[in-house]
Design brief:
Layout: H1 14-65, H2 68-74, E1 76-78, E2 86-95, E3 100-109, E4 115-125, E5 131-140, E6 144-145, E7 149-150, E8 158-164, E9 173-184, H3 197-205
Length: 207
């Protein structure tokens, strides 16, 4: 009688082989896709940084090439400190034969700079001071484009903005606050960095 150990071989069926092949293919696809995504993200990040640096370096030249109206529109800066020179108010009035309620917002530029962008947040309250509705309006914009873009607010000027209020009934009051304020910065003269003739003459005469 033989004392050799018995070897039992279990053969998988057709469905087991198919399942192993499918799951193996899925794992290979997942690994390849992960590698491609990581490589793609690194490539995109590199190109984005290069494009951003290129735009930043070329922006002054592009700004000079823009038409005057567009160059002035983008030549501004955020200036929350200038809010002390700008006063805003809002009230609800009745207009027309049907007493249609309208919102009258007023912005006054009491400073010496031109306001290129002024955004206002308005909250309507009922007679019990319960908020009913809120929305934003622009009292000043960099450009004049039809109705909603009213243009910059010049120094010493006051602007009124009228908005119709549909579906508003009863006594309503309005509260307003400034949410964005930008002022226009005049560009530096093109000859600002050039030496004056007097300076050149003094430099030539000096030993």
């Amino acid at each position: 009688m033989s004392s050799a150990p018995a070897v039992i071989v279990k053969k998988g069926g057709f469905l087991a082989s198919v399942a192993k092949g499918v799951f193996g293919s899925i794992m290979v696809i997942v690994i390849c896709a992960t590698v491609l995504v990581v490589y793609g993200l690194r490539t995109i990040d590199h190109h984005v940084v290069s494009i951003t640096q290129c735009i930043a370096s070329a922006w002054p030249e592009w700004q000079k090439a823009l038409p005057a109206v567009l160059a002035d529109a983008v030549n501004d800066r955020r200036a929350p400190e200038y809010g002390e020179s700008v006063s805003v108010s809002a009230r609800v009035a009745r207009a027309g034969p049907d007493d249609q309620p309208v919102l009258v917002s007023e912005a006054a530029n009491k400073g010496t700079q031109t306001v290129s962008l002024l955004a206002l947040h308005v909250v309507l309250e009922d007679e019990h001071s319960v908020p009913m509705r809120d929305f934003s309006i622009f009292a000043a914009t960099p450009l004049v484009v039809e109705r909603d873009w009213r243009g910059p607010l010049l120094p010493g000027k006051t602007r009124q903005v009228v908005e119709r209020l549909c579906g508003v009934k009863g006594d309503v009051k309005a509260n307003v606050e400034m949410t964005e304020l930008r002022v226009w910065t005049p560009p530096a003269p093109a000859h600002a960095d050039l030496p004056s003739p007097h300076t050149e003459q003094v430099a030539a005469e000096s030993p």
